[in-house]
Amino acid sequence: MKTSALGRLRYLVGASALVILGSGSMATANEISPERIYNLSLAATCASCHGTKGISVAGQDMPKISELTHDQIALAMRQYKSGEKSGTIMPQLAKGYTDEQIEIIAQILGKK
Amino acid sequence: MNRRLFLGQSAALLGTTAGINKLALASSQTKAQVVVVGAGYGGATAAKYIRMLSNNSIGVTLIEPNPNFISCPLSNLVVGGEEKIGALTSSYSGLTDQHGINMVQDMVAKVDTQKKTVTTAGGNTIAYDKLVLSPGINMYMDSIEGLAQANADGITLQAWKAGPETVALHQQIADMPDGGVVALSIPLAPYRCPPGPYERTCQIANYLKANKPKSKIVVFDSNPDVASKGKLFKAAWADLYDGFIEYRPAHKVIAVDGKTRTLKFEFEDDFKADVLNVIPTMGAGNLVVDTGLANMNNRWAEVNFLNFESTQAKDVHIVGDSIQVAPRMPKSGHMANQQAKVAAAAIVSEINDFPVNPQPVVTNTCYSFVNGSEVVHVASVHQYVPEEKTFLPVQGAGGLSPGPSRLEGIYAWGWAKNIWSDTVG
Fold first, then answer.
1. What's the pLDDT band for A3 if we cut at 50, 70, 90?
2. Lower Cβ count inside 10 Å, N or C end of chain A?
3. Is pTM beyond 0.90 here?
4. Cβ separation of B357 and A5 shorter than 8 Å?
């Protein structure tokens, strides 16, 4: 079976993850870690059209994905990917992402 | 990691004289320093995302000669008179005020990859732990006889780097008498923005149709056919601009006579026009070439696609139009913005001794206006394939518009506002 990108990264992290855990501080979601950099930079592929962190500039009509929940983003992406949902560019782009990448993007950009 | 010191103009005030002025700033002694050269779609995005992904723990200096960001995408609307250049211009203040980036308005004259310093034309030497080069493209003005002179005289414009020439080209077309001819010459691919010349053809025809209906545009393409969105552009030319556009493929301009406004070709007869827009062949920005990093035919820079590090120099990362691209990866502003995020993530990881993401992904989205409001797109997704050590387009993903639409015109402006904000906001 093919290893996922995140799986490969977790494997590569191995030793340095121990260093982080052994540094005494509790790792929080906002601390720099390999996984956080991976997740944020993956979600940042959406930012070119939808704005940094999915927050659109006011006064224009690109769909505002930061106002959607995790479930709404994940569902829309899966439906674009399967062809269930129509659109202009998104049906074409969604097909280029793996299911795991879609899940991470939805986690990062979804309304908290 | 060897922590380098930031040096600034104030070194001179301390009485330091010749050579490399080193000024130890207490605040930067423990902080890694990244220098980014060029604040276009690639460089500005890299600078911003290095700050964001590192929680502002890495110092970033961004060096750019221009006082503002002017977008090349959408600048064909200025050539055709649908927009003013001000609508495509953004301030760099977001990068300094929101992200704490140290912005230096200067040219970089020299990079020393051994000492890990850059020296600006203004005489500042700045040390780096990591360097990002995003100088865009260099126009080969000498590749066409007489072009450099005709361009210096303001007769033959390229207007391929958005700015004063973009505005001047529109003015030339506006000043042309009705019944006049505009000639556009397109270089052989690869060049910056594959669909750009064909969108420009639409925008000039759009202007002529509304304002000078006896005029026409003649397009001389060095390529054997329209290099991007071919069917869509040809359909738009036939549907919207019948009689206004003459397209001549496989025509290579070899000389320009500015005085008589004449184009000369490899094989065909000379052609005289009222306005000449000659886009020459192009390659990596001068700084990349001068630093010895243009290791693909002395034209483009080869990089490791996992971190966009030059294959020629350690800790020097190159993004944007200067690189030797992966298969079917276009030279576009959107792509430069995407590459910059992969490079930024890798740089932050490397500085923190983290492993670099083994499988990054980038996308491309490119909108072209066929008139003032209707748009066609091409889009693609490129996943890194470890076995091939390159990005490859995902089969079955990406594609084109079925035809021009106003909805995509609205999205094109949304894209523009959001990517400008993502890049410099």
1. low
2. N
3. yes
4. yes
